[in-house]
Give the backbone structure.
Amino acid sequence: MPQRRLVTGRSQEPRRRFAEELRTLRSQRGESLRQLGERLGWDWSLFGKMEKGETLGGPEVVQALDQYYGTPGLLLALWELARADKTQFREQYREYMALEAEAVSLWHFAVSVVPGLLQTPEYAGELLAAGGFRGLELEAQVKARMGRRELLEGEDAPPFRTILSEAVLRTPLRHPPAWREQLEYLLEVADWENVTLHVLPFSAGLYGLDSTDVWFLRQPAGHTVAYTENAHRGELIEEHGSVERLQRAYDAVRDMAMSPAESRKFILRMLEEVPCDTSP
């Protein structure tokens, strides 16, 4: 006789299961999202996004929910499983792109590479190829990245502030003319009215954002979301306390960075150091 399967009707996909559990627990309490937000002291819209699977929230809010619902450790365990699920990184990036398109201002810090919004096609191509893209897929990725640059163009373009670690400018492309073109493009964009560019010199020493690129997207409703990224993964951060801590670290880095005028002079010096192309 075949073994009977236990059917719970609940999703086996970690992120979706976490969202389902949140909806079920609130429904059992007979509360609205606004009531939940008022009782726990968080913006109710955060709980709405968590229940839709649009964000996972931070550990602080999940622990508060565990305590409130009397489910010690259950929600935190589901949250950890959802965070470990690699498919959620692609979902977070798609959500990040939507938030980027709606942002009224953008702040950014780069550890080692030029941000996508400021890359030339040659720079993007070499960077993406180093990440494993090839052939038609590489061409499509480069084209998509170049399309993003339109965000900073036009009369309605949002203010954009970027801080580039000196390491970004000390890591050239293999082909000197392509690297020269990238530096020249940075100088061009730095002159745009809506763009502010800083360089963080090595002489600044250690700083709080020394291992992760970070973006801050201020939304039309007034709140700010953050997106951190390294070579292997990205994470969308919406919980207010976590965003606030990252912003304080960013402010400290900005205080140590060169002024826009000094930064421009620094990039010009880097440009002068690019060897002349000796190819026939």
Strands lie at 105-110, 160-165, 195-200, 213-218, 224-229, 234-237. The radius of gyration is 22 Å. The first strand starts at residue 105 and ends at 110.
